Amino acid sequence: MNIYMKWLLPKMNKIKLLRAGRRNLLLLFLISIVIVGAGMGAGAGALLTLSSGAAQDDGRIIYVIKITDIITEGTAVHVIEGLREANKRDAVAILIIIDTPGGIIAPTLEITKEILGSEIPVITYVAPKGAIAASAGSFILISGNIAAMAPGTTTGAAKPVVIGPEGATAADEKTIRFFTGHMESIADVRDRNATQAKRFVTHNDVLGPSAALEHGIIDLISEDKHELLMTVDGMNVRINEVNVTLATKDVPLYIMERTTRSILLDMLGNPTIATILLMVGIYGLIFGFMSGGTYVPETIGAICLILALFGLGLIDVNIFGIILIIIAVLLFIAELITPTFGILTTGGVICLIIGALLLPQEPLLFSPVWLKSFLIIIISIGIASAVFFLFAMGTVLKSRKRRVKIGIESFIGKVGKAETEIDEKEGKIKIRGEIWNAITPEGEEIINKGETVEIIDFEGLTLIVKRKERVK
Asked: Which is the catalytic residue, given 88, 174, 401, 425?
């Protein structure tokens, strides 16, 4: 027994060390992410100074804020922080450069509200050439004190939609009426063509720069931001019922860089990222609970699930979509427990794809390019999920059913070296750096010292061995 404990205790300590090591590596990894993120935040929070002409020493500045990609909660944080900072620093003007296919309702309304309430003139500008201010972006464009577009850009297509497995369809009449009224209200405040602005919502109109200028949606067309600022210099805008004359000529530009907070919220608020995190979180927890021992899958799963739930809270989601995703996971597990030759897996894949497509419910989110990429990602995840549950988790379940060999049982089939002569009564071998008592089966010849032996069985703490050459 002493020999057995002598062997077992180091093995147990080794296992504990391995587990502790894994946990320490995971902790180190998470700490590294925090440190890198902090570094990114320090760099992202800085302001990049560009000169639009001769440098000024009187402290006058123009804040430049960029809106790109899908409008999310992170976008709102970035824009609102820039607007408020510019107001505090009494900037000459704020230039918002727009290039977005649309986005989420709540952040869009927050941005337009902040722009309309700004005490500093706000210039909204669709740029560079080829950029778009679609859907939610058109609301932001018309909310500026001065609105402009670069050649080759477009705006409009703000009709609310419902995204589903069959694509995008028009939202209900109540939703359309609300956004029509809100678009009209913004246009009235900025003295723009409210009739045309409403058509963005009711008729899904899309206008280029010339048409937008002709229909009173924008104030001018400019090649780039420097030409734009030279052109608007001397123009009058109304701020809190007071006429303000713009003085933007040769004023330095300060570009607001994204902070770590806005970048993180931007990722989590993206419906695609939130959906992926949700599924990874569920799979991680299930896989971790079924395999056990490492704590890595369940830790990663828990983190992803928390991030997903937070991200889903930033967007308008369809509860039915979440339910379908959960049903899909249950069907995958049921397939493993009660094999149905792929029937339940097929049902799970269908539920997963439909549930994920139904998940985002944002009326101003639609973009054909985004929807196509989202569909490809969801179908890929569905197929990968089926493979994951059928093979990866199937292997785990099979391994749990196998008899686990511990202690002296694990020696069977191993090879050692005879330290003394070994017969039916006594002998010693060396294996894994340790000396063990050993005997030969009845009727076997004596094994000489130094010969290679293979362990075929054991009696108590005594190993039963044969010459390696004689084992077939």
From this structure: 174
